[in-house]
Amino acid sequence: MKRRRKIGLPAALAVALLFAALLAGCGRNEGATKIRIGEVTRSLFYAPEYVAIEKGFFEEEGLEVELTTTFGGDKTMTALLSGTIDVALVGSETSIYVYQQGADDPVINFAQLTQTDGTFLVARKLDGEFDWNMLKGSVFLGQRKGGMPQMAGEFTLKKNGIDPHADLDLIQNIDFANIAAAFASGTGEYVQLFEPQASIFEREGKGRVVASFGVESGKLPYTVFMAKQSYIDKNREAIQKFTNAVYKAQQWVRDNDAETIADVVLPYFEDVDRDIVVSSIDRYKSQGSFAEDPIVDESEWNNLLDVMTSAGELAKRTEHQELVDTAFAETAIGKAAGQGD
Q1: Rounded to whole angstroms, how far apart are CA atoms 60 and 332?
Q2: Is residue 12 part of a domain?
Q3: Which of 217, 241, 274 is the last residue before a domain boundary?
Q4: pLDDT at 178
Q5: Do β-strands 119-123 and 107-114 pair in parallel, antiparallel, or remain unpaired?
Q6: Please, are residues 228 and 18 in contact by the beta-carbon 8 Å criterion?
Q7: How many Å apart are CA 157 and CA 191, to the nearest integer?
Q8: Are residues 212 and 225 in the same domain?
Q9: 232: how many CB neighbours lie within 10 A of its CB?
Q10: Sheet of 107-114: strands edge to edge?
Q11: Number of domains in the chain
Q12: What are the tens digits of pLDDT across the range 28-53?
């Protein structure tokens, strides 16, 4: 005869607690709206995005976000247009390219995250004080043609009396994700790099940061959360909640020092030493790279158009009102101030 095995009190309690935990877990996720984000690269430049996730600001708004790094503006926009992601974190220039190709479903910029270029000029070897004229005749490992890093870089070079195509041996045929590795392996005398890679190379003796393209090129809608107009029209409440969370994160980053921010975003940079993370965030904060609110400002938009025109990448000016919707950002700011619902 088979004997029925009794469950003792500790085991029974464990089962009950497990069941309760499962129910509680289901309850937390029930009704949450899922939004798939594609970020153009993984960088401390996007610290407020990681803060919004880690501090639970998206969750507070009833959102479940899935973050993917898509490595490159062209790849990020392809993912957005194909529906692989719902929201892209990428340079505003990509939305202009899509619009000028005659898209029936334009991509709309609704929440700005960064407001300057995020790259730094790294020199392989430098004796003495840096001068922009040192670049003349050098091998310069550039970014993808038509991308914001390259355009902001060219804008800065021209501002300092350098013709990037006549005065440099300019290399632009290396994929975005492989630029740092190419420089590390010996390609180029100068390169544009985001943090933390620029500081890592300084630590390893592979180069020295000599200038900031963010400081030199001025304020731009450099990296913005955007979505197709059709997605926004169908998901206005979710986009508003998303923008609310972004604004909470921006205010939190504004109000906290680099060390505090670093401790929150470290899970996204497991292979980077904490002191590098701290110094990189401090570098971005000190030059005003992190936007303090999500509004895509018209003056910054016009600066973007000037940069694109200078790079020869703009067929015609695409005005602010055509591809920017500030309503979500304005509502988020109003709500935080106690003026909204």
Answers
A1: 14
A2: no
A3: 217
A4: 93
A5: unpaired
A6: no
A7: 13
A8: no
A9: 20
A10: 63-69, 33-39, 87-90, 223-228, 107-114
A11: 2
A12: 456 899 999 999 999 999 999 999 99
Instruction: Give the chain as a 3 state SS string.
Output: CCCCCCCCHHHHHHHHHHHHHHHHHHHHHCCCEEEEEEECCCCHHHHHHHHHHHCCHHHHCCEEEEEEECCCHHHHHHHHHHCCCCEEEECCHHHHHHHHCCCCCCEEEEEEEECCCCEEEEECCCCCCCCHHHHCCCEEECCCCCCHHHHHHHHHHHHCCCCCCCCCEEECCCCHHHHHHHHHCCCCCEEEEECCHHHHHHHHCCCEEEEEHHHHHCCCCCEEEEEEHHHHHHCHHHHHHHHHHHHHHHHHHHHCCHHHHHHHHHHHCCCCCHHHHHHHHHHHHHCCCECCCCCCCHHHHHHHHHHHHHCCCCCCCCCHHHHECCHHHHHHHHHHCCCCC
Same domain, residue pair 202 and 249: no
Q: Identify residue 128 by its one-letter amino acid code.
A: G
Residues forming beta bridges with residue 122, ordered by sequence position: 191, 209
Residue spans of the chain under pLDDT 70: 1-30, 339-341
Residue that the structure tokens 């055509």 belong to: 322
| Predicted pLDDT of residue 12 | 42
- Give CA–CA dist 313/326, Å, rounded: 25
pTM of the predicted protein model = 0.85
Q: What is the pLDDT of residue 29?
A: 53
Contact 158, 164 (CB under 8 A): yes
Strand order in the sheet with 208-212: 169-171, 139-141, 190-194, 119-123, 208-212
Coil, helix or strand at residue 193: strand
The domain containing residue 234 runs over which residues? Answer: 31-116+220-336
